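Cross-check.
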Amino acid sequence: MEPPAETWLTRHAAAVKDWWWKKLLRALFRVKARHLRIETGVVYGHANGQELTLDLAMPLSGGPFPALVTIPGGGWEWIAQPDSMHILDEMLAEHGFAAAELSYRLAPKDKYPAQIEDCKAAVRWLRANAAKYNIDPERIGALGFSSGAQLACLLGVTNPSDGLEGEGVHPEQSSRVDAVVSFFGPTDFTLQSWRDRYEKRLMLSVLGGTFAMHPELYERASPVYYVRPGMPPHLFFHGTADDIVPIEHSRLLATRLQAVGASARLVEVPGQGHGAWPRGVFNPCLEEAVRFLQENLK
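Predicted model, tokenized:
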């Protein structure tokens, strides 16, 4: 969860620093960005003196398109692999989605729940601007990696009564999402194993206190504590050898969702750790995620 830990795609794209790397990755995923509409640095809100921005990638014609908010990881303190996320968004656009890659406020300057408030504001912004971007406001999903997957899951399991909407833009719009894909995200901050590893530094940065001081904050940041009937479909991918965010997190949330009748499936990826999966492992997972989103955002 903490920099400079490797994240997904770093094994075969360490950092997409120049045009040649980007050309290589586009060829790898067979992405033809010239056939897409791409807008970067689109302001979706303001908070604590900061502009909140997103990057959009979508087909040039057709629609209205199902939309996806894609949420990068980085331990809530930094944004991991933004260039690789751009490539992912362009690939999703090639499959007919309007992909919106979010930036959001970061710890330690902005403590939780600032991060989920920003993600919810972005979903509301997409609905408010659906006509401008030819987006179907009734078909919006979320996909995230690591800490971004925790935020994607929170989008899936929370509603306005949970008090996480914040003071952001377009309060008349819903922040609901209709499908969630989680890649190796944490789901329960109250677990003893999680607190043993992260409570003394990372959780102080993100939540502002220890579990003994603020147990309610640890629960409030944990998607498992919001599960109730009526949840949208969730698909989880998690490496069985992940020692940064153990697979227990995905198992817990998938099991709780299933217990209330929600559609939830966990793909356990044998022998893989926390991201940095080989292309032959990651690509089939990504293809399965696309099929899941296509089926659930019809």
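The CA atoms of residues 153 and 223 lie 6 Å apart. The chain is about 35% helix and 20% strand. Passed to J.P. for a second look.
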